[in-house]
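We read letters as residues; the fold follows as tokens. A sample entry reads:
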Amino acid sequence: MFARRLEALRKKISESRLQGLLVTSLPNVRYLTGFTGSNALLLLSPDRDLFITDSRYRNQASGEVENARIVIAPGSLLKALSQKLALRTVGRIGFEAGSLTVSGFSNLKRLAKEEKFVPTVGVVEQIRAYKDEDEISRIRRAAEITDRVFNKILAILKPGLMELEVAAEITYWHKRFGAESEAFDAIVASGIRGAFPHARASANRIEKGNMVTIDMGCRVDGYHCDLTRTVSVGRPPPEMRKIYAVVLEAEQRSLNEAQAGVRVSSLDGIARKSIRAKGYGKYFCHSLGHGLGLELHEMPRVSSKSKDILKNGSVITIEPGIYIPRLGGVRIEDDVVIHDDSNEVLSKVPKELVIV
């Protein structure tokens, strides 16, 4: 598995006329080596790949890292790298401009004066954008756990509960059902707070008649899922029921077209056009979705400005929403695996409006 990924990366490195690549993004290091620790870097070069970490991870690295020589640094990882580079000439080395800090880059140039370092963007991430079956199975397991947690929340949701209490239950049940962690702090937004797309759970108590947006997810074996449903606690206001139907239709229209060969900007446009036609266009204020994997948000970005094209193995979210100040909001989100002529929706909980 890792050998195949490294081979694909070497091809990209060669196409970029580089002789090596310094990988400092920890999700990318994990993707290429299997290492799950919190301090490491990886240098890919023509003759030998170097994996560098500190002494805390000596045993862990020996058990996890494949296809690279392991170096245990007594101090700075970049200093250890420069010492290894001093023993040989690699040539033009790419570095991850989005990951290496300015101070880190300055230190690298100072320590390894003989090398030429070239900024790169998204080299590994472009490969990560298309998942293999092992990766998809991990995201699927995460989605299954989050579905179970959502059903638990439906069973306890009632007037008088604080949003924070609901969020605490989500955290508890994710761990109870086997997730290694939450993917992010759960969003629980009731009533008019539903108009904030990224509202944090608060001490506000849910009232009868409130719509409640619940955005939640977990991580399993390093891979994330992301689910949003908006439910009603008691009978919802007529306008909110109407908005829910508009969002649901927009999401389904995008889902119907999600398959390999489709531009992600087209999917965004389908949902946006559907919502605009019902008079709520200005209240859909974010992109339609994003890629999922070792990071919660990764390529492809499912937006009107993206030039990405879906391919077999893409895993994305589709999550249109409408947010009206002083009234409330609705968002519906599913995780979707893209196939050549179809898609698989991983989120299985109901999408029709649930009233508890």
The chain has two domains: 2-128, 133-345. The longest strand covers residues 211-216.
